[in-house]
Input
Amino acid sequence: MTLRLLPFAFAVLLLGGCAAEYVPKGEPSFYVNLAQPGATLDAAAAASMISGYRGNNGLPAVALDPQLMALAEAQAGLMAKRDKLDHNLGKPFVQRLKASGYDAKLAAENIGAGYHTLAEAFSGWRDSPPHRANMLLHGATRMGIAAVYTPASKYKVFWALILAEPDDRGS
Output
């Protein structure tokens, strides 16, 4: 009888030892705190998250667009520099888009401040009807997103998201 219990007890000890030594490989990138030096936004995770949300609402996925990424970075950076949440810093959105040379049939911009993670920014935009409508822009297939950390601001992180439907007729 003792021989039958030993393998079981040994297995329990082994499993217990494995569980105690398990260390997760890190948190998902959408939970990374961007309100700290050196933290970077995972744009691919953002595109995947927004594409999944769009797919759940019967809309096509969006792909990262280098030109829209640069525009989002510029807007988030300007808001961080001036410590002000505003679509019209520098130039209004439509003027910024045209000045960049980006040909779009439709485009929309979400901005935000104070969200420290991608998950928080996404949830804030999803729960706001006008921002939700922008994320669900019919026809959009491209996006750019940026988060800029600024330690001097009470917000710490400024966000810009641009979704667009390219106008391929001009190409």
Q: What stands out?
A: Confidence is low (pLDDT under 50) at residues 1-20. Helices lie at 2-21, 43-56, 66-82, 93-99, 118-126, 129-135.
